[in-house]
């Protein structure tokens, strides 16, 4: 009886034995049996058959996690969440300007801004109670018009992007040349918050100012439509009462309209006159 005839006769028995072991024979089994002998009958290397589960697992692992060259794909680093703004550093390692309720912080003020020098850059952090945009302008005269403006805009995709604008009168024109880098932004709890850097010194340009000089800071925020800014929320946005220097870390609080007190001499005079009139009124 030839060898091929014997194998064919024993094939049903091999199937039963393999089924009891939980391994289904395949044509590769015959190749593995033959691998025990060389082409001319001399002994060769015996390869152990792998069970179907381990074979599937190894093939899946190789196809899913190995590159064409057989090396594992690098694992992507985890995405760091937006680091909260630390107000405890205000007036110490960075300057801060708050607008809103007394005692408010970066998450509760109507508007919040911080600045600090990092090498040849200035890092800014901004936050405002809005679902649209928040911005700061650098002005030489406390008025809108001819101002360099950096804004953080919340778009329809949920992202917060940094934009560069130039005030033309009461209108903010977006400028393609954007000096911002290392941009971060988040929209959370109905607040737009962002962080970015821009160089201290820039080439001479009408739309860009040198931040090593002192400027009045204009503060504004408002709604956005499809990632484009619209008019700011309040008619007269707040402005710093003095020029701000990035070399001086101040912690400035500006009460919003609802918390402003009558502390100007004119207001006090009006209050005294009104009180006198009420007290001395006709009987």
From TrEMBL:
Q: Which UniProt keywords apply?
A: Membrane, Signal, Transmembrane, Transmembrane helix
Query: Which positions make up the signal peptide?
Result: 1-19
Question: Alphabetically, which GO biological process terms does the record hold?
Answer: regulation of glutamate receptor signaling pathway; regulation of postsynaptic membrane neurotransmitter receptor levels
Q: Which Pfam families match?
A: DOMON
Locate the DOMON domain: which residues? Answer: 109-224
- Coiled-coil residues are none
TM ranges? 262-280
> Region Disordered: which residues?
25-51
Name the residue ranges with Basic and acidic residues bias: 36-51
User: Record keywords: Membrane included?
Assistant: yes
Q: What is this protein called?
A: Ferric chelate reductase 1 like
């Amino acid at each position: 009886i030839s060898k091929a005839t014997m194998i064919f006769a024993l094939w049903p028995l091999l199937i039963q034995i393999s089924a009891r072991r939980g391994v289904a024979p395949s044509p590769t089994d015959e190749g593995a049996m033959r691998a025990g002998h060389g082409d001319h009958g001399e002994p060769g290397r015996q390869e152990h058959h792998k069970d179907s589960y381990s074979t599937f697992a190894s093939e899946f692992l190789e196809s899913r996690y190995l590159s064409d060259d057989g090396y594992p794909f690098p694992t992507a680093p985890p995405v760091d969440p937006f680091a909260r703004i630390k107000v405890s550093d205000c007036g110490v390692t960075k300057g801060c300007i708050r607008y809103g309720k007394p005692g408010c912080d970066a998450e509760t003020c109507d508007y919040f801004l911080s600045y600090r020098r990092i090498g040849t850059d200035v890092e800014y952090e901004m936050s405002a109670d809005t679902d649209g945009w928040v911005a700061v302008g650098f002005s030489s005269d406390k008025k809108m018009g001819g101002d360099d403006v950096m804004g953080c805009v919340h778009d329809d995709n949920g992202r917060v992007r940094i934009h560069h604008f130039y005030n033309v009168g009461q209108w903010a024109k977006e400028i393609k040349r954007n000096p911002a880098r290392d941009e971060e932004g988040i929209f959370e709890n109905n607040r737009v918050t962002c962080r970015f850097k821009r160089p201290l010194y820039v080439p001479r340009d009408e739309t860009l100012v040198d931040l090593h000089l002192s400027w009045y800071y204009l503060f504004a925020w408002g709604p956005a439509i499809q990632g484009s800014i619209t008019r700011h929320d309040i008619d007269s946005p707040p402005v710093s009462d003095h020029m701000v220097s990035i070399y001086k870390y101040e912690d400035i609080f500006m009460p919003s309209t609802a918390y402003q007190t009558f502390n100007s001499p004119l207001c006090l005079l009006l209050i005294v006159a009104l009180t006198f009139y009420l007290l001395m009124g006709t009987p």
